Structure prediction request, 687 residues.
Amino acid sequence: MSAVPAAVDAAPLARTVEALLFLSADPLSAGELADATEAGEAAVLAALAVLAEQYAPGRRGIRLRELGGGWTLTSDPDAEDAARRLLSRPRLATLTPAQAETLAIVAYLQPISRPEITRIRGVSADSATATLLERGLIEEAGHSQFGAILYRTGIQFLKLFGLRTLDELPDIARWDPSPEEQAQLRERLLRAGEARAGAER
Amino acid sequence: MSAVPAAVDAAPLARTVEALLFLSADPLSAGELADATEAGEAAVLAALAVLAEQYAPGRRGIRLRELGGGWTLTSDPDAEDAARRLLSRPRLATLTPAQAETLAIVAYLQPISRPEITRIRGVSADSATATLLERGLIEEAGHSQFGAILYRTGIQFLKLFGLRTLDELPDIARWDPSPEEQAQLRERLLRAGEARAGAER
Amino acid sequence: MSSAPIVSSGEPTTLATLELDLDVFSGPFDLLLTLVLRQEVDLLELSLADVVLAYLDHLERRGELDLETATEFIVLIAALLELKSRLMLTGEEEELLDIEPEQAAEELLARMLDARRFRSASAHLRQLLAAEHGVRFRTAPPPASLRRSIVAPPPGSQDPQQLGAAMGRLLLMPPEINVLHIAVPRITVGERLAHLRGLLRRGSFSLDEAVGDADRMTVAVTLFALLELYKLGEADWEQAESFGDVSIHPFASARAAPPRPDREQGHGGAGQRRALAGARAGAAR
Prediction:
């Protein structure tokens, strides 16, 4: 703030450099910043000095760090407790309808391949499957005879749903007026899925 | 910077809130910020006001935006050229007319199924729907009574279109043709040909 | 088949200036619409595909695409198609008359207004998007040190019933589409084969004679039977013009030789298409 002329000159460039540091996940070198801003490296370094002043420790919730030959913005360590509380909230406590459907299909029909899940749902289950995998609710279980990856539920699934074994899954009969064998359950799901896909057209 | 007493009071909390906004990918509501900072919502709102002042347009390379029922940090649009050079991927710049129409129908009538969208547009919306889903602008929202998948807009839609809530979309009736225009259209549909019909016969 | 449309030049591209020259109608599109709505032109006899082709010709000739008009055209054609398919699928003839011209016009108008509203709304959205040009969001994940502390949701926090409910939802068959029009085949191909063979023994006859006042299903089944006879080399047919009557006669060297593919009339795919067109015309009457 004392170097008024520098601030006046560097201000627009400093703002651009700040935006780039904000957007970039990785540290940016002075060279990369100079290329992107189409300014000289000396100007970029001057802009970084202005930013370093503005982001001096204790002034903001964000810090400017020189790291691995470049510069990067990081959160202030003072905010770590709050950040932990924010990020450690149970993520996505509720399942989306697509996730619940995909999980139910895997739970009742396991092992089952993604193409078959898609047929039953009538739409792609790719993103739901990926999320369930990532959260450990389902896992891979070998390959079908056609080479498609099969999925089954894992330990995490039983824990999260408070089940001792898969036998404790709710009885389908409650939702299905004509209870049938499990083998037929698959058939019926596929038929309904195809009817839905047909109705969509 | 002029309001020294406020800055002194709000500063530590404002710094923490700033750090949380920096870390979070999605907008954070005052409630979420209050939980994470263990401060009251009023204090959080005061801290956000301090930040809003610090991030006033033109001051920094980062902006504070109220979006989707919460607050988030974004880059300053002035830095877009440099950002494009650095990240070498364009921001979602445009939508095709089909995508924009499909998105408008979902935004206003959500939740809505694909057959309904098709009916309004007169042509299939399959590929537009797939693209919008892929870009995260719309998402699944359960099933209609006929089993068709329903769609709604997601947070990504609010983020990219700079909307605080869906209520910020103008009333759809705003684009109704005037009663005179409607009368003319009706006329065209039913009566305009009459004279010519007479002449033809 | 329709000849190419005559386009009045110099006029702004509106649908009103789209001149059509079709089998059942010649004149401007607007007038056609009016006549259809007034039920003075039978929608069932109107080839909407020809209208679309004429419009495409029209576009090609002008060399420019007016989106406004194109959208209007698509909405109108789609509505006409739906109207037409509804007419074709009604089980009872009376229902045909249930759509009053005014009602049909109101329905078309409602469609056009809806399409306009959302087209305008989409323009607004595109403006919003353009106004947000250059606003980017940080996508970097939180640092690993903070991420590691993410706690798993507590055991038993999910209700298994939601899985059963999802299953129930998936088991649900969508309500049956009304398939009355394709209902139980009361008439079998075998019966119609016997009927046609009986007629063939007496010489040539027309499809109209063969089906009389029978319902559409009988017409369709008769047609299948006819195709079967053709395949077996027992019968041949001719149709002078599309939608004209189909005349059927015993195949000259029946059972001796398969039909020769190079014959002038009524063979293979083209013959079948013609026969189908005839049957459609028959069904429409």
